[in-house]
Every structure is written in C-alpha cells, then in structure tokens.
Design goal:
Layout (H helix, E strand, L loop, with lengths): L3 H6 L10 H6 L16 E11 L12 E9 L3 E6 L8 E5 L5 E13 L2 E8 L13
Antiparallel strand pairs: 1-2, 1-4, 2-3, 3-6, 4-5, 5-6
Length: 136
C-alpha cells in the first residue's frame, strides 16, 4: 500500500514552466454547460503514483513507478501532469495515497514544457464515488 513516506522517495521529474504554478494556483471552476463529461470534475492538487502498462510494442517504457501531479478528478477520469509524453489509448496503473488503484486509458496529452505534459485519461472502471481516492 502506498503511503506518504513511499511517495516521498519518488523523485518528481516534472518541470513546471515559469509562471505555470501561479496560473494554476487559482481554483478552477468547471461550467457543466461546457463540459461533455459524464461526471462532474473536482479540482485538486495532490500527488499520485503511476506505472506504465505495456500498450504499444514499439514504445519502450520503464516498469518503475512515477510521481505525477493530479490536477482534477471525476468518477470517470483524471487530469494530471507528468514529465513524459503519453499517447492516446496508452494504458497505465494509478495508485492513490490511500492505496486505491485504478487502471487508466490516456485520451489526450498536451505539452506544457520540456518535462511537463498535461494528460487527460479515463479510468478503466468508474469510481463509486470520489471518496475512493485521497483528494485534498
């Protein structure tokens, strides 16, 4: 089970571009009229751990764990920052601070900086509610 001590041993390799942290510090409000998602999103700033699953034979990925920064979550998916580019339909495993694990499928990836990618992904199984993760 993942805990804060284990998480602190993982290096965060994400490099936020200058000014990005200030821009993201203000709370985000999502207008449900502009949102095509099935479930409402909750804005948060919390760390998580991700492990790649072999998806594409041509894409070599380390089997280790990566520290990521979760930016928003819903019962159906998650938005996070990662230091590496990911590709549509690529699969990974997420571990949250309370030990909850979920598979995910990448839907989009946008480069923010040289070591900063904004990734949106769907969970392979819908969360019963947001208390399954440890959101702050």
């Amino acid at each position: 089970m993942l805990n804060e001590a284990m998480l602190s041993k993982l290096d965060c390799e994400i490099v936020l571009p200058e000014g990005y942290a200030d821009r993201e510090a203000s709370p985000q409000f999502f207008d449900p009229r502009d949102d095509r998602r099935r479930f409402p999103r909750k804005s948060c700033v919390v760390d998580g751990v991700m492990q790649y699953q072999r998806t594409y034979p041509w894409l070599r990925r380390s089997n280790g764990y990566y520290r990521v920064m979760i930016r928003d979550v819903s019962r159906g998916g998650i938005g996070f920052l990662h230091s590496e580019e990911m590709f549509p339909d690529e699969k990974a495993r997420f571990v949250f601070l309370n030990g909850t694990e979920r598979g995910l499928i990448v839907k989009r990836c946008r480069r923010i900086g040289p070591k900063c990618y904004q990734i949106g992904a769907e969970f392979d199984e819908v969360l019963s509610d947001l208390s399954e993760g440890n959101w702050r």
